[in-house]
Amino acid sequence: MEKKTILVTGIGGNVGQGIIRNLRFSGLDFHIVGTNSASFSAGNYLVDKFYPVSFAYEPGYFEEISEIVKKEKVDLIIPSTDFEVYFLSQNAQSLPCLIAASGQFASETYLDKYLTWKHHSESGIPFAKSFLPSEYKSDFPSAIAKPRKGRGSRGIMRNNFDTSKLMDDEYMIQELHEGKEITTAVYASYLTGELTGILNMERSLDNGTTNYCKVNFDFDPELKQMAEKMIRHSDLKGSFNIQSIVTSSGEIIPFEVNCRISGTNSIRTHFGFRDVEYTVRELLFGETIEPPTIIPGVAQRILLDVIYPNCTSEAQLNKDATDHFIVF
Question: What pTM was estimated for this model as a whole?
């Protein structure tokens, strides 16, 4: 059988790098192409071929991706950023390959946190109460201002902010809840549209990225029911992520949804939730995925160094041209 080619976007970030490591860990043999907005990152050494591309919201992005797909004979694109999920989903019919992404409605709704709030409110799905800056009248005892289409934790302001300086098309105000943070990985089958399984983990973050997490089964029934309702009320497909706070009274309050494979994908594979592998097995091979069996566990992230000896310029830094080793 001819080796399949998979394009993973955003390999400069932990999401894209985790996806690639999971593809290698799956035992399936792929030719992996990576893209990123920066010409070099720690993810370059993981792929067989690398291409720099524009940001997804810039005019040349889709043409650049189309050219790479054609040149490398790409079978499947796995986008790792919210903007790429959105733009690729909206233009899926124009590409001669498969895209691991939800439909147009979900990719647009969950790109924008305020649209997420509106959709959940109209559908009777829990979500942290939210306002546009022009509507907010100090309604919450504790509040957070977020970019509507923010990336990571950039641009966030807590409590002491001036709403008159925040534009409605850029920001939203959300009620800030304290409690246990739960990240929920969900997989909805591309083939049947049904929920395949979920994995809940408690977590702590460092600069917006998970640095510690622990499998938590306590809230599985409630969050499974919530995920099923989200799937029924939209065109969510494949892997997506719900971020929630569980208050001291036990109320589960989602405050963000990532309509893509999320940053803990490289961790949760080892707890039984192999969503990257499910994605390629369904889309490339048409295989039926059985519900996962989740095991308990704890994970802690660390830094590693990738060393390129005798390298004199960044122009040399790509996997097929430069020797490297990893310091453990």
Answer: 0.93
